[in-house]
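hi!! sorry for the late reply, been swamped w classes. u asked for the two structures so here they r. pasted raw, havent cleaned anything up. first the sequence of the first protein and right below it the tokens
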Amino acid sequence: MSKIAPCLWFAREAEEAANLYVSLFPNSRIDHVQKNVIDTPAGKADQVLVVNFTLAGQRFMALNGGNRIEFTHAISLEVDCVDQAEVDRLWDGLADGGTPVACGWVTDRYGVSWQIVPTVLSKYIADPDPAKAARVMQAMMQMVKLDIAGLEAAYRG
């Protein structure tokens, strides 16, 4: 089990967000839902305060803080995807009600930033041939959702 667990602050959508996230990723589950034991700024007694969940094996906490604090791109969740089907499935699930950004980034309906990245991208941009790596970077910079076939075509020249 991971020692560090990111905490995501929501106004009142912690349980809804956690349920969406665990529905999208294998090896994911809701571990515990803690309700307020007294009235707090986060909500009344018996309303959800914290949701502890595991997402693809990584522990997370979703907190209902009572007021909205906007997420920014300064922190994002990167997802390593083995193939285009996984890229497409996760992208579609996270973009539903959210906002596609650029270069594989998508902001979900709660404002959390995600990077949906095919595994092969890091191999291509780390290639010792700088021309291959540059072509892949240039191709990636033109994409919104990353397309493995397009990255492979750029890599091959």
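now the second protein. again sequence first, tokens right under
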Amino acid sequence: MLGSATFTGSQAEAASYHTKAIKVAKSELGTKYKMGGISSSGFDCSGLVKYSYQKAGKTLPRTAAEIYKKGKSVKTLQKGDLMFFAPNKAKKPTHVAIYIGDNQFIHSASSKGVSYAKTNNTYWKPMFIGAKRI
């Protein structure tokens, strides 16, 4: 039992790998952006997500569009949920990030590398197309 909530085995496992994935992503803060990058020498957005979840024990596809096909769509974000973005609200996402709580996400952006952003960021918010829980 954690606080007043109780978790089933699968809920506790999900909370555990989500926490691990976030911890891995945070450990890469400041890593430069690299198109096609999937390691600490440089990440693109989906490379960071794939790397972080792999270190937490979950295998994900390589691109944002492929990852978007996985998991369950969610309306209310929880830590570890994946956020997807597309220009002009296109159906096919071109960017993915990990929600870390407190209206923030971590991602690898071409302008800043691995960094935090707010969910209400004026650049990203209009491109948000949905979230998935893996």
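hope this helps!! also noticed smth abt the second:
Strands lie at 38-39, 42-43, 72-74, 82-85, 95-101, 104-109, 113-118, 128-133.
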